[in-house]
């Protein structure tokens, strides 16, 4: 057919700016985190399930009769992962860690950065607590949580 | 009541970085192969169902609009479907329902992915995450799999050696597959010594970025019986979806895939199968990472919950085993053009028809199962096919 012709490719790039909607529940969550340093969840008034991240409706009962409750800034590690690649995909010497932390006083959890602990010392089930950025540096982002670290007894 | 539906043809091609072709040219090959396999022409096709998993790879939003001619769908009804990686099996389920509903008699289903045109795969994957709770943290595919795999191994006491056995088995099986991108004769030691992506996942636990397509033709019973004396029926389908907030789920702790168990149960109920291990002769399960084959074997009931390691240790899932899994090489050995993982269904069909060439398993295959997986640990889709 046309295999005798060298295939041509055309270089291109797509760059699109966005303003992502955080949503009604997410906005309240991030505002409370920023202004009061609190981890707010929503509780279904029918089944009692405490949602973290919060939602404005119960996904199971499918009603919007939910109330805001304060979850703990402490919890335990459900699982974690260690990366020797930067978020940009470059090999790095000092690894960084992400963990899923199930927060106390909620039935859910958050994906968080883990720090102040060596990868070899982290265990599933380990108790951890949040370290927030100083209030004047908090902007209403999940990154207002600087990281989680092992609970110091 | 749903009509009976048979698969009457499958179209394959080699998975590779197919930079020389555009999407239309690439899928024309599999559409034509499927028609030839079924002994049909384009005129026989009443409608086309097609799709891919992630448009950002090829850089064209709703890329299926570029695939009308190559799919054989010119001036025919066409519908796109995408459920991330589980598109691999949700697409054929949609094709099946087109026929089962009585709306169309013959439907062409095409799954494709063109990944190599993109020059920054990780940047593409970053666009799939929730922008409030996940993306700012820098989650990427390696870390995502590290989170899930660690939880899974920890929950059931499984090991990296079990994962390595999947890699050795599937890459080895791919040596017999003419369409495979990554056939390799390797040892468990080779896998264990390959560089870590994120513990416990290593390079040889992953599957390669690639391009490719697959096609399957579904036909109503009366049409199928005209085409063949040995129809392969769709016996059961099932699907399940869970929340994108994988960190805060009511069920499912990433170790146990509740949504995949749900999809399997639906498919088995529909097929009237009560004891899968006594009935299923062959399985092609979605294995973009080695531990996913293990999780999926459990969810599909091909072994006990937490029993995937034992299944590998005993050789049950090897090509000559009692219940072979991914004798084609799976995504590990054949390559992973995400939605074109519909190859899993194609190989189930080929095994039943004894058209699998050097990949053919020694045992007789009458009933086979396959699945797909996708989203933020979210979707599962299952299809069971077989003879009466």
Structure overview:
The complex is a heterodimer of chains A (153) and B (388). Chain A has one helix at 24-36, and strands spanning 39-44, 50-51, 66-71, 74-85, 91-103, 109-114, 127-132, 145-150. With 153 residues, chain A is mainly beta. Chain A has one domain (24-150). In chain A, the strands form two sheets. Chain A has a five-stranded antiparallel β-sheet, with no helix packed on it. In chain A, strands 2-1-3 form a three-stranded antiparallel β-sheet, with helices on one face. Chain A starts with 23 loop residues before the first helix and ends with a strand. Chain B has a domain at 5-119 and 211-227: 3-Layer(aba) Sandwich (Peroxisomal Thiolase, Chain A, domain 1), CATH 3.40.47.10. Chain B has helices spanning 23-38, 55-58, 87-100, 121-126, 141-156, 160-173, 188-193, 221-227, 258-271, 276-279, 290-299, 308-313, 330-334, 343-352, and strands at 5-11, 47-51, 78-80, 106-114, 196-198, 201-202, 211-220, 232-241, 282-284, 367-374, 379-386. Chain B has a nine-stranded mixed β-sheet. Classes of the chains: A mainly beta (153), B alpha/beta (388). Chain A binds chain B through residues 3, 7, 9, 12, 14, 18, 20, 22-23, 26, 30, 49, 51-53, 59-60, 78-85, 87-89, 96, 98-101, 106-113, 124, 141-143, and chain B through 19-20, 59, 117, 122, 131-134, 136-140, 142-148, 150-151, 154, 196, 198-199, 243, 245-250, 253-255.
């Amino acid at each position: 057919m046309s295999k005798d012709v060298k295939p041509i490719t055309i270089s291109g790039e797509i760059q699109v700016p966005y303003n992502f909607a955080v949503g009604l529940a997410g906005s309240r969550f991030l505002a409370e985190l920023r202004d009061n340093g609190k981890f707010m969840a929503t509780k279904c008034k029918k089944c009692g399930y405490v949602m973290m991240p919060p939602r404005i409706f119960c996904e199971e009962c499918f009603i919007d009769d939910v109330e805001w409750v304060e979850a703990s800034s402490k919890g335990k590690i459900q699982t974690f992962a260690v990366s020797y690649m930067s978020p940009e995909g470059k090999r790095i010497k000092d690894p960084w860690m992400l963990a899923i932390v199930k927060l106390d006083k909620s039935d859910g959890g958050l994906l968080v950065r883990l720090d102040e602990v060596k990868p070899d010392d982290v265990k599933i089930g380990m108790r951890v607590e949040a370290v927030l950025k100083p209030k004047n540096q908090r902007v209403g982002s999940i990154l207002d949580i600087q990281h989680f670290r092992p609970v110091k007894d | 009541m749903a009509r009976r539906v048979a698969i009457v043809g499958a179209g394959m091609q080699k998975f590779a970085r197919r930079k020389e072709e555009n999407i239309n040219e690439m899928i024309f090959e599999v559409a034509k192969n499927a028609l030839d396999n079924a002994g049909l022409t384009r005129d026989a096709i009443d409608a086309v169902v097609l799709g891919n998993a992630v448009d950002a790879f090829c850089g064209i939003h709703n890329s299926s609009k570029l695939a009308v001619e190559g799919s054989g769908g010119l001036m025919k009804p066409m519908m796109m479907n995408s459920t991330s990686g589980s598109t691999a099996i949700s697409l054929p389920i949609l094709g099946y329902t087109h026929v089962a509903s009585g709306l169309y008699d013959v439907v062409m289903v095409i799954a494709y992915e063109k990944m190599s045109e993109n020059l920054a795969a990780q940047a593409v994957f970053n666009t799939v995450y929730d922008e409030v709770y996940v993306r700012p943290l820098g989650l990427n595919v390696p870390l995502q799999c590290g989170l899930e795999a660690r939880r899974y191994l920890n929950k059931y006491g499984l090991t990296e050696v079990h994962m390595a056995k999947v890699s050795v088995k599937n890459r080895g099986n791919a040596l017999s597959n003419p369409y495979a991108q990554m056939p390799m004769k390797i040892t468990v030691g080779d896998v264990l010594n390959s560089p870590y992506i994120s513990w416990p996942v290593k390079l040889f636990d992953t599957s390669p970025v690639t391009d490719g397509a697959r096609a399957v033709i579904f036909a109503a019973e009366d049409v199928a019986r005209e085409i063949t004396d040995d129809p392969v029926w769709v016996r059961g389908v099932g699907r399940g979806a869970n929340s994108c907030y994988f960190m805060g789920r009511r069920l499912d702790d990433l170790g146990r895939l509740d949504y995949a168990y749900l999809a399997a149960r639906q498919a088995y109920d529909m097929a009237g199968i009560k004891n899968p291990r006594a009935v299923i002769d062959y399985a092609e399960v979605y294995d973009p990472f080695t531990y996913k084959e293990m999780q999926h074997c459990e969810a599909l009931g091909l072994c006990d919950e937490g029993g995937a390691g034992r299944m590998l240790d005993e050789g049950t899932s090897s090509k000559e085993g009692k219940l072979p899994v991914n004798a084609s090489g799976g995504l590990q050995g054949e390559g992973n053009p995400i939605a074109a993982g519909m190859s899993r269904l194609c190989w189930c069909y080929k095994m039943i028809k004894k058209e699998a060439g050097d990949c053919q398993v020694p045992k007789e295959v009458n009933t086979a199962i396959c699945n797909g997986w996708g989203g933020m640990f979210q979707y599962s889709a299952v299809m069971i096919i077989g003879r009466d």
